[in-house]
Design goal:
Nonspecific Lipid-transfer Protein, Chain A; 4-stranded mixed beta sheet; two-stranded antiparallel ribbon; 10 helices; single chain; Four Helix Bundle (Hemerythrin (Met), subunit A)
Amino acid sequence: MPPAKKRTRSYDTARIRAAVLAQFGNVREAVEGLTAEQLDGPTRLGEWTVRELAAHLTLAVGAVARGLGEPEPARQEVALLDWPSATATAAERIDEDTRAIDTADLAGLYERTAARYKESIAGVPDDRLVPMRFGAMRLADFLVTRTVELVVHTDDLNQATGLAVPYDRQALAACTRLLADALAVKAPGGAVEVRVPPFAVVQCVEGPRHTRGTPPNVVETDPLTWIRLATGRARWAEELDEARVSASGERADLAALLPLMG
């Protein structure tokens, strides 16, 4: 898959590196406080238990150290905006890898994963290519995808346990922005303005492009609702009915474009 020739927004690399560790720390603290009964409880992720969800997050963050521990690939194969749509192709492998993790010592697993992450990225340049499931990515881009994994699955963890694990602001912002940009890639155009305050505004969908004043087609929602819609954890019609999404204009129905990733 050649890198996508699309304009990608810039991210503050230092903040993204810190955000991955901060959100992983938020999850780590929550997981360490769960009882065995809670860990064995169900999630909205098919047959995964909370324990498997927790294990998967160590897999997602641990992928950074694992990738940097391998020889650097010769060329970039995946651009940041390619990643959301590519994830659906790896669902079976991700499930197998997650179920293979030894979860007898989750606290130790989280501690080791955090330590390896910090050690692996120290002094490594942003442009260092990292092998991952779909091909080689720039380290800076791969770290942005880790914020998506962490934020999305933190929401899954909260839904499954009734906890209120906090979201690191930088991680939440990066996740929101990448998924908003993925929509603009999937449905290029300027007929609809999608607003996810305070983090993202994108234009998408073919049709007349507005140049001034209030756009004729506007969608607005909050970050977590947007993330749930983009990942298939919420349905467009239901979110509209519950007033968590506002949509005005004849082209503002995004139902056919969602979800963006599985």
